[in-house]
């Protein structure tokens, strides 16, 4: 299978060509955000306040990077369980978010929203956060700094290895791999 090299920002045309199961090397700028940051963004939106991030054509990586060891940009930055962000995802997609990176299944509601908004959900492999950190070229906290590793970071990645978990047509890699019981 051929590995696709993609640069951010991702266009709708590029996203539309991705198919569930495609292997991708992603390069460019993305944001990190975990549970606490998602809750804060959601609360701002719910209360009619602007969020201090431009999510148009952006990708959010569900990760909380650790502090960098000497001579490194960042410490370990593996994916967290995506389903914990499901209650907060729809308003972010409405604001133009085009991609999400995490691990594990998404709710049916999020899968339908990914299809509705023509977005993509990428899977990062859990357990290799130290290796993934070698693909990070720049990282700095930009929002909710008091949350420490759960702050929103802006990161530049180069050839970040991912798999398309849900494509823009709503095809879900987990739907193809579920055990069938009688």
List the helices and strands and how they pair.
Blueprint: E1 3-7, H1 12-17, E2 23-32, H2 35-46, E3 59-61, H3 86-94, E4 99-102, H4 108-117, E5 120-123, H5 129-133, E6 136-143, E7 152-166, H6 173-177
Parallel strand pairs: 1-2, 2-3, 3-4, 4-5
Antiparallel strand pairs: 2-7, 5-7, 6-7
Account of the protein in words:
This protein has 182 residues and is an alpha/beta fold. The protein has one domain (24-169): Alpha-Beta Barrel (fumarase). 26% of the residues lie in helices and 27% in strands. The chain contains 6 helices and 7 strands, in the order βαβαβαβαβαββα. It has helices spanning 12-17, 35-46, 86-94, 108-117, 129-133, 173-177, and strands spanning 3-7, 23-32, 59-61, 99-102, 120-123, 136-143, 152-166. Strands 2-3-4-5-7 form a 5-stranded mixed barrel. A hairpin with an 8-residue loop joins strand 6 (136-143) and strand 7 (152-166). Helix 3 packs parallel to helix 4. The longest helix has 12 residues, at 35-46.
């Amino acid at each position: 299978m051929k590995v696709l090299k993609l640069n951010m920002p991702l266009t709708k045309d590029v996203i539309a060509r991705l198919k569930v199961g495609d292997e991708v090397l992603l390069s460019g700028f993305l944001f990190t955000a975990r549970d606490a940051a998602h809750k804060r963004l959601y609360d701002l939106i719910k209360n009619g306040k602007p969020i201090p991030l431009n999510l148009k054509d952006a990708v959010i990586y569900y990760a909380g990077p650790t502090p960098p060891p000497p001579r490194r940009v960042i410490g370990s930055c593996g994916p967290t369980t995506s389903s914990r962000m499901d209650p907060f995802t729809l308003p972010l997609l409405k604001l133009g978010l085009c991609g999400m990176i995490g691990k594990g299944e998404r709710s049916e509601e999020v899968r339908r929203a990914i299809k509705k908004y023509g977005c993509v959900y990428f899977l990062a492999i859990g357990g290799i956060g130290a290796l993934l950190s070698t693909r990070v070229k720049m990282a700095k906290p930009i929002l909710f700094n008091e949350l420490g590793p759960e702050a929103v970071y802006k990161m530049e990645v180069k050839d970040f290895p991912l798999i398309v978990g849900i494509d823009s047509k709503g095809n879900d890699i987990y739907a193809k791999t579920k055990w069938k019981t009688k």
